[in-house]
């Protein structure tokens, strides 16, 4: 696979909890990454790190 860069994608979900939008993992890769943080949610700065690592961020459709 020379010259071909494989992009990984992670799926995240936004949930509104007590009026705050929180970003939760929604796939196995995101679940592995959240374990490194010792928390349950990602911050906006975490999203910038994911992008700098070449991860593609997909958003899970919310429930209405």
What composes the largest sheet? 3 strands, mixed
**Spatial sequence of strands, sheet with the most strands:** 2-1-3
Ends apart, CA distance between termini: 42 Å
Protein structure class: alpha+beta
Shape: globular
List keywords for this structure.
64 residues, alpha+beta, three-stranded mixed sheet, 2 helices, 30% helix, globular
Kindly describe this structure.
- β1 and β2 form a beta hairpin.
- This protein is α+β, with helices and mostly antiparallel strands.
- The mean pLDDT is 90.
- It contains two helices and three strands.
- The chain is globular and about 40 Å long.
- It has a three-stranded mixed beta sheet with strand order 2-1-3.
Brief digest:
This protein is an alpha+beta fold and 64 residues long. Helices cover 30% and strands 30% of the residues. The protein has one domain (9-58).
Strand and helix map with partners:
Blueprint: E1 9-17, E2 20-25, H1 28-37, H2 44-52, E3 56-59
Parallel strand pairs: 1-3
Antiparallel strand pairs: 1-2
């Amino acid at each position: 696979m020379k010259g071909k860069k494989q992009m990984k994608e992670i799926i995240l979900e936004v949930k509104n909890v007590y009026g705050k939008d929180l970003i939760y993992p929604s796939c196995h890769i995101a679940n592995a990454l959240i374990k490194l943080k010792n928390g349950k949610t990602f911050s906006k700065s975490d999203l910038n790190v994911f992008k700098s690592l070449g991860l593609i961020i997909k958003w899970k459709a919310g429930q209405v």
